[in-house]
Amino acid sequence: MISVEQQVHGYRQGHQLLNSSVSLSKADQSTIDQLSDVAGPLRPGEMFSPYVSAYPLPSGTFYVFARTWQDLTVARAGCVRTLSLLIPVTGWASAASLRPFFDLLKGDGLPSSAVSVDVVESVPEPLPPANDFSGKELLEAMFLEDAKPVALFDAADPELVAERLMTAMWPGLRARLALSTFALSPRKVEGRFFDLVFAPKDAKPRFSDWPGRRVDARAGRDSRHRWTGAIYSRVFIAPFPKLMGDRAGSLIETSEDSSVASLRIALLWDELLEKVDRSPTAALGLLDIANSRSTLSADTAQSLTPLLREATSQALSDLPTADAWDFVAAIVRKMHAVFPDSVVKYVSEAAGRLAQRDPEGALALLSRPDADDALAVLWPTIALGLADGFLGAEPALISAEPGVLARLLAAGRPLAEAAAISPSMISGMARALSTLQPEQLAAAKTAMLPLLTNDDQVEAAVPLIASLDEEELLAEVLHLERANGLSSTAYAGPIAARARAIGATTSLRRVLLQRDVTLGRSSFLQATLTPSVDDALWLISEPALSVQAANGYLLALLRAASDSDRRILLGNEAVLHRVPDEGTDVLMWAAFSGVLSLKSYLAVVFKLLPASGAEERRRLAFHALERCLPSRLPNDGLSTVSTLFDVMAERVDVALVARAGLGRQADTDVLNRNLIAMGLSGEAARNSFIERIDEITAMLSSRYVLELSKDAASSLANLLWTAQTLKPTVGLAASGRLLPQVFRSRSAPVSILVAACFPVVYRELASKEDVPDLLKFIPFLDWDKCKSARKELVDTFMMSSAWAPEDLALTAFLCLDLDRILGRVAESHGGDQYLAHVLAGSQRLPDGPRAATEAAIGRVRQARWS
User: Fold this and answer.
1) Which of 527, 576, 520, 518 is closest to 551 using CA atoms?
2) Nearby residues of 424 by Cβ (< 8 Å), 6 or more positions away
3) Pick from 714, 698, 642, 700: nearest CA to 668
4) Where are the beta strands (DSSP E) in 133-234?
5) CB neighbours (10 Å) of residue 201?
6) Which residues fall within 8 angstroms of residue 22, CB to CB, at 6 or more apart?
7) Residues 6+ apart with CB under 8 A from 197
8) DSSP string, 524-566
9) Is 23 helix (H, G, I), strand (E, B) or coil?
């Protein structure tokens, strides 16, 4: 129901308000006071029929719909009586039928009273056609061309034309319309000309300055616009006037229905709707219009969706593939701004079939720049199509841009599943994914990693694993365990490498140690180990690992390490000591690497010796002797060197022993130890020393003096005595070669060596006329060979406090010349006292030499006293 107010205007000492049911604002009242008067000056005697006026008031509260009668009851010419209905603008604009308002303006006489009236909205009734005037030109002027006021001349039934026109108008247009069915001159409201005035034919001269269109209602002209006929039929012929057909009415929203431009857009919309089933490209025009709207009603969008889907399907079936992809891209981009993704996906589902038919075109489309990601909705559809035709699409996928391939794999599980079991795609994915940044791999790794669980798929998994964070990495390990119990050991390396890169090795090991013990778990745990001391110490100290397991990991780590890393590892004593017995290869390498400390080296050597074969033992012993002979060893090293000699046995390298253990570079303690060890060695090794005693004495003779201990000297003496027995010539030469150094070594307890060297030389001198060539290097030998030798022997013993006097007795005994040698002592200064020492010391000699010495001393003394 609409509440309508009324005002009556007429002549009372001028045209003025006669009656009113409402009080208006000054501006509104002034407007109605003016426009209720006659529409232009009447000529003398001119008569007119009642006419209607329609216009909005300045306040926007009321719309005026008025009828004006010529008032012949007053004497003054040109007076009128006007009944104005003041209708709320919203009620007027939205009224389905205007007939109730026209009915209020009917009356047999001049109106005089103004009352409030409630108008009940009624169902529209059919209107008679208005087809006897130039309505097409009028509609073109008002709606299809630049908006200008229109003056329609000589219309047969202006009121019917006005009623049909206002009824057909949209609410917004109707609320703004200013119209008069009779005017003798231009009319204005709020400074603007009425939109439409009807005027008699003879009033044309008064419209010479009319700024708008002047239309002759009886002139027949051809339509200038393609929509003219349709609008004319709907507005002036159809029983129920309307500007647009029912199908397109929902395109224009209330906020836009006051714009004539919106009408033209709606007409184009209607035209495209009629074409879309024949020409799919019309759908693009519909979307252009939809995108131009500030909003699109839900009803319009819903009704448009199946049309767009059908148009897309038809276009993709009928157009060449290149054009079809252009169409898909265009329609999706246009829909992106208006429709939700679910609708766009529904419309573009046919793109999956096209992708199956033309995979190269699909990938080319997805490779195009798409700044606002409008084509995002196409990716799953195309991915599904490529999966359905995977065999044909595979070559194109392999050569696709890496970013496109990664996103496609993430967009469709069927495609990811197909790619995961294709050997050629595995390699292609590996190449492509390895070129992408982690952020580009985010979706692909989520889609692909669950499908990559076998060793033959690891190539594609590597770049994805390299983009995981700690939480994702540990989840991947658990996934592999569920999939195959970690039996895909090819994944161990990439996972361990990623853990090291992000500092998650500790977490990874913790997770692995919580899993059941399997070969797969062992491989993954082994992969976390690097050839570093830290990792080796972790193995040794990890309580969750058994000793056997830790040793196994450690051994594998050491075997796989480079030489430089292994040197560092085995240089750590804790690591070295944990090498298990089965790691002889590693220990052997360590022994020969030169990295071990002497203490560790010896421990390794003596651990290896019992476990090695004969040849390997000798090789190991030879190497150990090279290192040990010139060095001081823990716990004096005597048993160490002696044992090594015995390992070498008859193959002991005497030249090495002499060179490394007896030369001038060997300090006194080392020299003594080595000589003692030679004496303590087993028969086989000792025989080798004896056979080559000359090499030993030759090296010793390079030393100016022999600073030997008593034990060392005894050991060497025993070797010399044996050599003299078994190899007399060699023994003689060796003894003669060593004798000068022995005589110079008066401060060392080497007198036993005099007993070993001097007698054989003395006896040789005594048996020859001349000094043998092999003894000519002895400096104290002259023409009286034996006498000189005896003198040097006695003088040296008597001057050396470190030499044992009994050794002089033993020497004389072995020379077979006790009387002359001891006689020489007796003749020397202090000789009696020294003889007493010799006699006392002889008690330490074996029975034979002791008895002979006692007897000889007795004879020497007797000879001196007689």
Assistant:
1) 576
2) 394, 398
3) 700
4) 150-153, 179-180, 188-189, 192-193, 196-199, 213-216
5) 11
6) 5, 6, 7, 86, 116
7) 39, 149, 150, 151, 152, 179, 180, 183, 186, 187
8) HHHHT--SSHHHHHHHHH-TTS-HHHHHHHHHHHHHHS-HHHH
9) coil
Q: Is residue 674 within 8 Å of residue 628, measured between CB atoms?
A: no
Among 359, 367, 361, smallest CA distance to 418 is for: 359
**What's the average model confidence in pLDDT over 529-538?**
94
No. of helices (H) and no. of strands (E), the chain: 45, 12
Contact between residue 39 and residue 149 where contact means Cβ atoms under 8 Å apart: no
d(CA 581, CA 60) in angstroms, rounded, equals 105
Give tens-digit pLDDT for 486-502: 999 999 999 999 999 99
Strands (E), 395-540: none
Q: Token digits for 227?
A: 């929509």
Q: How far apart are CA 147 and CA 135, in angstroms?
A: 16
First CA to last CA across the chain, in angstroms?
A: 181
Residue with tokens 């009642």: 50
Q: CA-CA distance, 384 to 382, in Å (whole number)? A: 5
**What share of the chain in percent tops pLDDT 90?**
69
Separation of CA 111 from chain center: 88
* Spatial contact of 101 and 62, defined as CB atoms under 8 Å apart: no
Q: What is the DSSP letter of 73?
A: S
572 touches 534 (CB < 8 A) = no
Which range, of 11-15, 455-459, 782-786, averages the lowest pLDDT?
782-786
Flag whether pLDDT at 778 surpasses 60.
no
Q: Tell me what pLDDT residue 754 has.
A: 96
Phi, psi of 245 (to 5 degrees): -70, 160
Q: How far apart are CA 83 and CA 77, in angstroms?
A: 19
Give the position of tokens 């000054």: 26
Nearest to 474 by CA among 524, 428, 432, 517: 524
Burial of 408 from C-beta contacts in 10 A (0-12 / 13-18 / 19+): buried
Q: Which amino acid is at 722?
A: T
Specify the pLDDT at position 132. 75
Per-residue DSSP letter, 359: H
Residue 248 has pLDDT above 50, yes or no: no
Answer for the pair 742, 753: CB distance below 8 angstroms, yes or no.
Answer: yes
- Say what the pTM is: 0.65
Comparison of pLDDT for 327 and 769, the residue scoring more: 327
Q: Residue 158 and residue 398: Cα distance in Å, rounded?
A: 75
d(CA 54, CA 75): 28
CA atoms within 13 Å, Cβ hemisphere of 703: 26
Q: Which two tokens stand for residue 57?
A: 């008031």
CA angle 196, 197, 203 (to 5 degrees): 145
